[in-house]
Amino acid sequence: IDLSVEQVSKIKKTLNRELSDWESDRSGLEQKLQTWYDLSENIVEDAVLPFEGASFIHIPMTRIFLKIYNSIQNRSLLGTDNLWYAETDDKNTEQFVPMIERYFNYRARVDWNVYEILTDCFRSANRDSVCVAQFDYDLETDDKEDTILITNAQEFLDEFGGPEQSGLDEQEWGDYFSKSQTANEEEPLEIPVSYENIQYYGPRGSVIELIDFVLLPATARDISKTNCHGYGKRFKIRNAEIRKKADEGLFYYDQAKKLFSSKKSNYEPSKGDQMRMYSQGLAQTGENDEHELFEIVYWFDLEDNGQEVKLVFTYSKDKKALLAVR
After folding, report:
1. For 202, how many CA atoms within 13 A lie in the half-sphere containing its CB?
2. CB 282: neighbour CB atoms within 10 A?
3. What pTM was computed for the model?
4. Where are the alpha helices (DSSP H) in the chain?
5. 120-148 pLDDT per residue, tens
């Protein structure tokens, strides 16, 4: 979305105020989440013993029961091939329901990360009492190079078609077609090709830990427009990814430059990251090129006409940079 200078300034002020209030209002929640995380990971504080040699026994009951419950949920809900069941009240489509059901269950098991994300959801919900997940429709590709072997002119035409369909320029197509006429199985024509290989295509889910879930204001009952101004997530992203998104036009370049122009960031691990690293015996001591960003769905009066529209903001509170509005 193209914005005026005044609109950008208004959005930044609103987000900065809302996020500052959110951080202040949820300090008690973060302490509770820390307590439950410690119990689930069997992190025990050192105790002051009344005398030397006094008994100090800790039985990790919370961790034990969570492990059992997570296992039962996975077996009960994800132990069969059928994750979804299709229904219809349309007589004309009843015959297609079994085929649709098989298709989506197969894709969920084999191609999509639905089973993995649900496993993570169970673990998070059992520990924090609620789980937030985000699903995007994702297309992930990588560049591949290959060599096609052609043994005759007909094979060349079957594989590449005419000059317009082949992806080759006319002269290159003509040279290869001429060579294909003398090719055979013992001495095939080798044609190098490059293409985009699809790694992942479909819905891709990710768990948003409750400690990183943003609700504006923090006291809102739910994410409906009636009860909250906006909602979203706090996440981190590397410098190289910020620059890539700016080059692709997904981030405003002048705003993104405030982040990727510096060789290192002053980002400190969030409470959630600190909890995770501590439980794994890790500590971050080296330089870090990651930045903390917020992706917020917000109902905003952009035109100052009293009409709120649903927008998605990507914002760096640290650098006060509005990276994207859509």
Report:
1. 13
2. 11
3. 0.77
4. 5-25, 27-40, 61-78, 97-110, 114-128, 153-160, 163-166, 170-180, 239-247, 253-260, 271-279
5. 999 999 999 899 999 998 888 888 899 99
